[in-house]
Write a structure and sequence with these properties.
110 residues; alpha+beta; four-stranded mixed sheet; 4 helices; globular
Amino acid sequence: MADTQEVDAKAERRAAKLAKQINAFSKAHGGAEAQVAYLGQRGARIALVGEDGNWGNLVAPTQEIAEQAVKKAGITVHEDFDGEFAAKVKTGRYEWSRMAGIQVGGPKND
């Protein structure tokens, strides 16, 4: 029983740490929304999009911890990274050249 309590306490601390990071991102970007995606054995990705269009990712060790973290942070969580949510993301020249480079065989030097 002590092992279960220890694991629960560790998960709670990890979720609290992630929630603190989510809140810091949200504060820096005028608010934030998220989407949680299962990564398999790696855990779960928390994709964050700020109200200003900036974005970032956090990785939680489990889906449950990721869901607990976004709940603690109190931000809107989307079921999918759909068109409406994705349209809020602002990308710059670097992202466009990087994405294009991947499609055509690697980044090009300008």
